[in-house]
Please model this.
Amino acid sequence: MPATIQLPPCNNPKVPQAGHPFRHIVDVQTRFNDFDLLGHLNNSVYLQFMDLAKVSYFEAVTGAPLDIKGPGVVIVNINVNFFSPAYFREPLAVATACIKISRRSFILEQRVVNPLTGDVKCVAETVMASFDPATATSPELDAAWVESLRRYESWKPRP
Model:
């Protein structure tokens, strides 16, 4: 089980406190073309950063490279709340945690943060569901994968 990530506290009272620990964080690199005319990171780029972090998170959970062939998971809903703009040359990282899991889907919370100041740029909840492209159905999540996720997040097994 990985250690809990310790970030500096966020001083923005509008940012909700996380109800769970984060055990995964990945630094992201911005590019000049990621910024709009006001010098703010474009909102669509946050989603790209969160996608990069999802891949890294899944590889950390399973201990293996992400396999994109065959049954997997798809995004079925994303909600993002923005709290603070990110600026050119500002260090950014994405913290990821699985906050809920069911038979066929799970929810990830991701936070884009300045890891030096703790300033939370946005908080996203993403619902992901199992998907088998061969049958176009949503089978139950793979039991071994669910167990890896439970171990990674330090969840107690279901009775």
